[in-house]
Write a structure and sequence with these properties.
By secondary structure, this protein is of the alpha/beta class. It is built from seven helices and eleven strands. The protein is globular.
């Protein structure tokens, strides 16, 4: 029997995990153990701090529901989602492809279908703007009948999952581009907003003296056969937090402003944004989504368990 010290314990753990049949799981867990052990040594982690970390992660898990994903929010605010997104883009986004952004924790599948020229608003009221453009591939050829999911906050800076019960969908919709890849729809100008601050991630952000705000933006997900899913968002240039997004989602090429003077706007005089979207070809790396509908991450809609059920007898 070997007496383990501060360094040899790491190798002992990795040696014991070496029988893992799945090579990718083995690789990820070995790296995770090495980095976690190095983190503990670097910070001289105390037992009290270790317990606080476990309590924090427990609270993050307990805050998750089929309609709220606190772990994705945590990943967002520490920049991990952005890191994964950048690496994923490096493998699959073509040079001409539209820059991507984060799917975020408020995406929902099954959004109401709206016609071209329709509105995202189901309950909300506000001053309308128009968003229009064309979807093409990296060679500039139209992508016919691409499907677009679009979602955003309402006039109060809240998503429908925050403002209403889960049966109500508002300020989101799904539409299909025409045969030339062209699209246009009406919406309201979104409001920048604070991330949910009533949970453990919000408490962490407050303890770091961060403002916790995201700039006003409109989420867009575009799908089409033979193409990589395009997950992006358009950010409003005059939002005061556009340069300090709490989840690090903004890229300069995605910053926009409505104008009433666009010559090809579908409705003359209506504040409008033209933004053309370029899709990349599908690759072996899979889809382009870094995120998920929260309900898909909770098997059977159940969240958590009675802790006593997880303890061995005695």
């Amino acid at each position: 029997m070997q007496d383990l010290d501060l360094d040899s314990v790491t190798e002992a753990v990795i040696e014991q995990m070496a029988t893992t049949p799945d090579p990718r799981l083995r690789e990820i867990m070995e790296a995770a153990v090495r980095h976690l052990h190095a983190f503990a040594r670097e910070t001289n982690l105390t037992p009290d701090e270790w317990l606080k970390g476990i309590a924090f992660m427990t609270a993050v898990g307990q805050a998750c529901t089929p309609y709220r994903q606190e772990f994705i929010l945590l990943s967002d605010v520490i920049g991990l989602s952005r890191v994964v997104n950048i690496m994923h883009d490096a493998k699959g986004r073509e040079a001409a492809g539209t820059e991507t952004s984060l799917l975020g924790p408020f995406f929902r599948e099954g959004a109401p279908k709206i016609p071209l020229g329709g509105t995202l608003a189901n309950v909300s009221k506000g001053t309308e703007i128009m968003l229009y453009g064309q979807i093409t591939d990296s060679e500039g050829k139209p992508v016919p009948h691409a499907t677009m999911d679009v979602w955003q906050t309402n006039e109060d800076g809240a998503y429908d999952l925050q403002a209403y019960d889960p049966t109500t969908m508002d300020m989101r919709g799904q539409l299909q581009a025409d045969a030339e890849g062209r699209f246009h729809f009406r919406t309201f100008r979104p409001l920048g907003y604070s991330i949910p601050m009533d949970g453990p991630v919000g408490e962490l952000v407050r303890n770091q003296a961060r403002h916790g705000f995201r700039p006003a933006h409109i989420h867009i997900l575009v799908t089409a056969p033979g193409h990589r899913d395009l997950v992006t968002a358009l950010y409003f240039a005059d939002d005061k937090h556009v340069d300090s997004d709490t989840v690090f989602g903004v890229s300069q090429s995605l910053v926009v402003m409505p104008s009433t003077e666009l010559p090809d706007a579908p409705v003359k005089g209506m504040p409008s944004i033209r933004y053309d979207l370029t899709m990349s070809r599908e690759t072996a790396e899979g889809g382009g989504r870094v995120g998920s509908d929260p309900s898909k991450l909770v098997p059977g809609g159940r969240v958590g368990s009675d802790p006593s059920k997880l303890m061995p007898a005695g």
